[in-house]
Amino acid sequence: MNQNIARLLVTCADQAGIVQAVSGFLYHHGANIISLDQHTTEAYGGKYFMRVEFHVEYLADKKQTLLDTFAKNVADKYQMSWRLSCSFDVKKMGILVSKEDHALLELLWRYSRGALPCQITKVVSNHEDLRADVESFGIPFVHIPVGKDNKDEVCDKIDEVMQGNDLLVLARYMQILTPSFVDKWESKVINIHHSFLPAFVGANPYKQAFDKGVKLIGATAHYVTSELDEGPIIEQDVERVSHAFDVAELRELGRDIEREVLSRAVRWYLEDRIILDGNKTVVFD
Amino acid sequence: MNQNIARLLVTCADQAGIVQAVSGFLYHHGANIISLDQHTTEAYGGKYFMRVEFHVEYLADKKQTLLDTFAKNVADKYQMSWRLSCSFDVKKMGILVSKEDHALLELLWRYSRGALPCQITKVVSNHEDLRADVESFGIPFVHIPVGKDNKDEVCDKIDEVMQGNDLLVLARYMQILTPSFVDKWESKVINIHHSFLPAFVGANPYKQAFDKGVKLIGATAHYVTSELDEGPIIEQDVERVSHAFDVAELRELGRDIEREVLSRAVRWYLEDRIILDGNKTVVFD
Amino acid sequence: MNQNIARLLVTCADQAGIVQAVSGFLYHHGANIISLDQHTTEAYGGKYFMRVEFHVEYLADKKQTLLDTFAKNVADKYQMSWRLSCSFDVKKMGILVSKEDHALLELLWRYSRGALPCQITKVVSNHEDLRADVESFGIPFVHIPVGKDNKDEVCDKIDEVMQGNDLLVLARYMQILTPSFVDKWESKVINIHHSFLPAFVGANPYKQAFDKGVKLIGATAHYVTSELDEGPIIEQDVERVSHAFDVAELRELGRDIEREVLSRAVRWYLEDRIILDGNKTVVFD
Amino acid sequence: MNQNIARLLVTCADQAGIVQAVSGFLYHHGANIISLDQHTTEAYGGKYFMRVEFHVEYLADKKQTLLDTFAKNVADKYQMSWRLSCSFDVKKMGILVSKEDHALLELLWRYSRGALPCQITKVVSNHEDLRADVESFGIPFVHIPVGKDNKDEVCDKIDEVMQGNDLLVLARYMQILTPSFVDKWESKVINIHHSFLPAFVGANPYKQAFDKGVKLIGATAHYVTSELDEGPIIEQDVERVSHAFDVAELRELGRDIEREVLSRAVRWYLEDRIILDGNKTVVFD
């Protein structure tokens, strides 16, 4: 991975001159723009979103200058909320899982072949089942059991264990997180839901899909908010099914969709491709 | 179209010997099985569904004998509900539409090139807009205006105009049909809904999809029942979208999905590929 | 359609400062960038491609100034090949067709509902079959019969009839165009080929696909060059098939793919989304 | 896995009475038909293919009787080539691999969760790289190095090591097998090819796809014959790509397609869903 790649993510009110201001700033600092994506929510007067990926020699040395100068010369003027992400600052990621291994193993396999630009620091589970799988990748496994009345305690423990991570991924973690935990980790927790949301919220979506007789089943990767299954959607996909599928077969096929959808969402997060727009996402893929 | 093709559709309790009984019956009457599909809802003790397509010389002459003998020798024994459909009995189809032409024109175009094995008898609309389009295909167009308080009257009129049809297709007919009409035409009315049901029931699904920020939009062809948007699903499909699509663009892309999904559902109906299983469908495609 | 939208397409050697130069130029002329896409063929030292869509008040009045100033102040400096396309200059499009109507009708239907931003000026065919269909859309139909030895004459006639068009679309025109015609209309003729090129070049691709037993069939929209079926690919798609499809069914399903693929390619051309890169295309969709 | 499930696969000339004969035979032996699929290559006088899956109590005890009686009473009469496969006879599968792990690991993972009904007996590789991965699944790993001039010797060794297997899977085994080996293992070796065959036969298909500028890339699972890349196709799939993908990215995306396509083909083989029809396959999925 080239150490001199940076990404600038910008949100502000739509107005003339933004591209010129940002590209001028980058040119002035010797940067070469690799890609530039933008999105406006309305033809006039909407919100503006931008992602610029650029290359600049000696990025590590220049980072602080870039941050300071951009804030002063560009961001303040256009009242931007923004962040700069540098390839040498490898993101840290923790994973939570219960007993099902498919989403976890897909992430670990992609990670081990270098396809997820991050460091996976820890896997937490409320069961011991997947310890050997996780440890075989050289990643610490932490068992935090969940009882009837210890949700707060469990979430405090997870919060403590996961300190320092940029992202938490719920790879089929079948426990509800407390509102205070979710608030603390706002916009930093991605979940994979085993349905095409907003259809089939709640428990056992494959059973719901079977009962309804849908002809496609899906999965949704979304940010976790305090409203269950209602956080901003990052990615979704579906596969065709027929009357011949029983619930177990829907679930088995669904696992393949979950693996792919979650992998894409996590990769996009790590590549700084996602910007929040209220309860929706802008994904520059 | 070969005039000597028939299709037998069977529903009964699952039990041993059904295939043997049906294929023996057909063999005895000189028929050649072209395809045979079956489905059981449980490993044991469930419901059984079968579709057999067969060829037999002089079908028109033999039809009554086949009906009588099958009823007596096979259907009664296995307590089947069943029907026999012959290729020379061309199905009659009526279409209802409002102002949007895309779903209607797709059906008319496929019909005109022989890809829908039926006779389209009439198109009814609550607006005059599409008269010329319909009449250019040589199909009668009937304008039945809808007012504030004449739903019953309108539905009586439609019922009268559509007498003799085997199937009614709502190709974006934006009026609600009365329960008594729906009961009369039970399992004979197919609607195209512009969302991936059960997500986004009700009005303006593309606006709902936009507000929710989904990454796929879809369409659903379903039988019409008295519960709005809740009838048995026949076919569904989706296309990928992004944050960059506004509501108008979602709607435009959605139209393409609607055209395809409705066409497939109608063709399957005409080819006797759909059997009802409570609030679900078995589709032997 | 907003009359004040323009698109600038640029190709040059990759080098620092291009975005800054172009966006600075646009800002200076009061333009608001709607979207900006770029592509480089190599990390360093490759080719650079850019598409910028922008809005500017009084575009018609400013067009000549924009052209002159951009040439002098930007394009020369960076040795760009480039073009500016304005929304008020509606593109003119001619269609060539033989007997099959599916690709033609799809284009005419989309055109009639405003989904193809162009003026369709003429449809030329070597058969009379589709005259009524074309004329019902109010578009002139020209019959240019093809004989055994009059290819040159036919192409001269087509060239004459089609003068003034920006784009010619071969919507299943089953005649070979002469090299001199193709040269004259270089990068201005789009063909729909009924296979997933480069598989199944040449005659009867559905028969070839059937014989080979492929599990997907496809269609390809490409620019026409003097090498048959070898021009730059613009768009492709496929559908799943099985052993149960005979050649006629492959052809029927294939028609649906052809309709979609050609429609997309034509729309992208009209929206100035395609730039040639040797024998390949850059498509900013 | 239910031990009393059997599958009967039949190929013969199309003729009246086959379904009746087979279903009558099964009924007489107390079997319950779970599914029945058939295919004929022509409306009349073609080849006929059938797959029947059935349940019968005490299958192990009855197997020899079923084989003998079916041969005498049905197969001889209709001149069928056929085979009976019983769920208690677990198929044995060997895998060959070189250095790339993606196709292998996908198979091993699915195997470990019970989604591939077989016993994986051995993995053979011409490199040592994947030994630890394979052995962690408890499967013997055999290293058979390949030199310049020892192809015959290598294939003899593989043949010896793999004795007793019903299926060999080339999960990115990058060596050519000798014609005599291929003959010996006819219809028992499945390969995954990293292109949408018949496009891009031969070396480095992703480079070929890149150079050609295709908009979709694919993968093909096929039987291995002595003609390289020309064996009967079992399964294919594609994904959409754009000008923005370089060769490495095409390869990375291609790996995901290869994993899925090969998994499906292997599962279908193990479930007796594939029948050869000359150089094509009938797949009853």
UniProtKB/TrEMBL annotation, chains A, B, C, D:
Pathway(s) where this gene product acts: Purine metabolism; IMP biosynthesis via de novo pathway; formate from 10-formyl-5,6,7,8-tetrahydrofolate: step 1/1
Species assigned in the record: Moraxella caprae
Family membership: Belongs to the PurU family.
GO molecular function annotation: formyltetrahydrofolate deformylase activity
Name of the protein: Formyltetrahydrofolate deformylase
Catalytic activity: (6R)-10-formyltetrahydrofolate + H2O = (6S)-5,6,7,8-tetrahydrofolate + formate + H(+)
This protein's UniProt keywords: Hydrolase, One-carbon metabolism, Purine biosynthesis
Alphabetical list of Gene3D superfamilies matching this protein: 3.30.70.260, Formyl transferase, N-terminal domain
Superkingdom of the organism of origin: Bacteria
Signal peptide boundaries: none
Active site: 229
PANTHER family xref list: FORMYLTETRAHYDROFOLATE DEFORMYLASE (PTHR42706), FORMYLTETRAHYDROFOLATE DEFORMYLASE 2, MITOCHONDRIAL (PTHR42706:SF1)
Alphabetized NCBIfam families for the sequence: PRK06027.1, PurU
Biological processes annotated in GO: 'de novo' IMP biosynthetic process; one-carbon metabolic process
Domain ACT residues, every copy: 7-79
Function (record text): Catalyzes the hydrolysis of 10-formyltetrahydrofolate (formyl-FH4) to formate and tetrahydrofolate (FH4).
Protein EC: 3.5.1.10
